[in-house]
Write a structure and sequence with these properties.
This protein is α+β, with helices and mostly antiparallel strands. The chain has five helices and six strands. Helix 1 packs antiparallel against helix 2, helix 2 packs antiparallel against helix 3 and helix 4 crosses helix 5. Pfam families: DA1-like (PF12315).
Length: 198
């Protein structure tokens, strides 16, 4: 039996902008030995799910086409974290912890892009002042447009102020742990306990 796990990004909005697809195979296993009753009938047998462990459970990452670069990147960072957690064997994380750490990665990626744009902006503005035909452009290494700077700040603010338990509260607990203990230590603690360090 195949179960597809879908992960949504979108701060509990009705539209889905990104998905991390993973595959799980679940078989039934006997949890309590049966007793044999009258007429050789099996009685009192209890079964439960048993998840088969596979080497690679991530089958695809899907992102809505046509979104602005910063929004696409932040969604991709979020979904890549879901993939990392699956591939590295992080099992049984609550939605709040899993979505929270994924939002942390999305937020960290946005911060790095905003900082990179701010530092690249100085060199670019002095170069463009010598050429009147140079228009501000957005590229990986070039200056960010004013629109892109504002969009990045807006997306970051959406993550920071999200009111949902999974995405918002999860992000706030996750970013506090990462700022205090670092990303690697936070992930190690999550693997051992299933929760953020406090």
């Amino acid at each position: 039996m195949k179960h597809w796990k879908l992960r949504k990004v979108g701060h509990h909005l009705p539209e889905t902008r990104g998905l991390c697809l993973s595959e799980e195979q679940i078989v039934r296993t006997i949890l309590k030995r049966p007793t044999i009753g009258p007429g050789n009938r099996i009685m009192d047998m209890i079964t439960g799910p048993y998840k088969l462990v596979r080497r690679c459970e991530v089958t695809a990452i899907l992102i809505l086409y046509g979104l602005p670069r910063l929004q696409t990147g932040s969604i991709l960072a979020h979904e890549m974290m879901h993939a990392y957690l699956r591939l590295k064997g992080y099992r049984s994380l609550s939605p709040q912890v899993e979505e929270g750490i994924c939002q942390v990665l999305s937020h960290l990626w946005l911060e790095s892009e905003i900082i990179a744009g701010a530092s690249g902006n100085t060199a670019s503005s002095s170069a463009s002042s010598s050429s009147s035909s140079a228009a501000p452009t957005s590229s990986k290494k070039g200056a960010k447009t004013e629109f892109e700077k504002k969009l990045g700040a807006f997306i970051k603010n959406q993550i920071e102020t999200d009111s949902s338990v999974e995405y918002g509260d999860g992000f706030r607990a996750g970013i506090q742990a990462v700022e205090q203990y670092g990303l690697r230590s936070t992930l190690d603690h999550m693997r051992l306990t299933g929760s953020f360090p406090y």
